[in-house]
Write a structure and sequence with these properties.
Length: 162
């Protein structure tokens, strides 16, 4: 019985000490990280140009003339922007949209499409279900994807791929 009382007193003492210390500033705290807007612009590294480029196959043109100025603005704002990688991502997103439509997956369409496009897909899916039709499709390949429009509005880039 005496040992229980002693342990209770020790536990009470420790709890009191923790209560007294926790939540107090000591001056040893690390400052909170700044948000991206407050950090400012980091100077981009200069791009190195290889004097002897590797021979490449003639690639299909992926940018319409009207989109070049907008893409230049986007690349100057974000030097890490990579057009071929973006087009590959756009192709993958297109494939995901078609797969979701064919499967009738409105949840996936909700986060991949704007509201008006999603509503059109939802209407077509509802009509297909009401008619009792089932789609079993596979996208074999996307022959081409072309950036037809690009613009930079503030810190947001808008790129249209067709």
């Amino acid at each position: 019985m005496v040992t229980v009382v002693i342990f209770a007193m020790i536990a009470g003492f420790l709890a009191l000490q923790l209560y007294r210390v926790l939540g107090k500033t000591t001056g040893q705290e690390h400052p909170l990280p700044k948000s991206a807007e407050d950090r400012g612009v980091i100077a981009p590294l200069p791009r190195t140009i290889d004097a002897t480029p590797e021979p490449r196959e003639a690639a299909a043109r992926t940018i319409d003339g009207g989109a070049e100025q907008g893409l230049r603005a986007i690349v100057s704002a974000d030097p890490g922007f990579d057009v071929p990688r973006f087009i590959d991502g756009a192709k993958q997103a297109y494939r995901m949209v078609l797969d979701a439509f064919w499967k009738g997956d409105e949840e996936t369409l909700a986060w991949l499409c704007e509201d008006d496009v999603r509503a059109s897909f939802a209407e077509a899916i509802a009509e297909r279900v009401a008619a009792g039709h089932v789609l079993d499709n596979r996208l074999v390949s996307i022959e081409r994807a072309i950036i037809s429009d690009a613009r930079l509005e503030g810190k947001r880039a808008f790129i249209t791929v067709r």
